[in-house]
Each structure stands twice: as C-alpha cells, then as structure tokens.
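Let us work through a complete example step by step.
Step 1: write down the sequence.
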Amino acid sequence: MDLRNATIAVATDDGATVSSHFGRAQYYEVITLVGGTVVTRERRSKAGHHSFGTEPGNDGPHDDVPHEQRHRMMVQSIPDCQAVVVRGMGQGAVDQLRQANLTPVLTGLHTIDEVIASIVSGSLDHDPRRIHQHHGGH
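Step 2: predict the structure and record it as tokens.
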C-alpha cells in the first residue's frame, strides 16, 4: 500500500514517538499526506487499556468489556484513516484493524518523523515479527 496519498494514524503517547504497544497508547497522531507532503497533522484521543482498567496496578474491572469490543473502541476515532502505525500489537488488534479496513503497519521506527520520512521515500515496511504473542486470554 502506497501511503504517500493517505491518512495514517500513528499510535503515540506524546505526539513525537511511536508507541511500542497499540493497546497502551493514549493518542493517535493522525497525518494526511498528499503526494508525499504532510497537509494536516492532528492528535486524537484513543481508547486503550487505560480506558478499560487493564493497566498494571489498576484494580479496575478489566473483564467488563470484551476484548473484541475493546479493539473496536480503539479504532472509533480514526474512521477516515487507511493505516495504523505502531511498534507492536497483539494478533487480536491486527485482526480488528483489518476488519475495520485499516492496514496495520508494525515498524521498528521510534519517531513519527522517521515514519513520515519512510512513507515519503516508499520504504516503510510492515514487520509481522512485531506482533505480540499474548497468553492467558489477552
């Protein structure tokens, strides 16, 4: 997929770095490119483990929201995007993104600027080895 003419969501906590875990990221940095040029960039809130009481040390009722429903909620704020870039995620999230017609792109790049440069140069690749293998029902 050529993302030089696309709107992409990069999972992030600070608007500068790519999150290492999709479910834990608090935001999306949503970037629209036209002809490889950034035409818009905005930060959007993202549902995640912090929304469901599933962060370590949080005693919230994490089983109250089914896993598949959590993943659907995580993509509600990006209906205009074609791809989601992150450094790691579980297979369930990968499957949910695909069901939502979003292309998951797992990368080793650390900054959003590096992601944009890779998109512009046509060198951003998906690394399926970065899919987390969850155990115990996660």
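Step 3: interpret the result. The longest strand covers residues 37-45.
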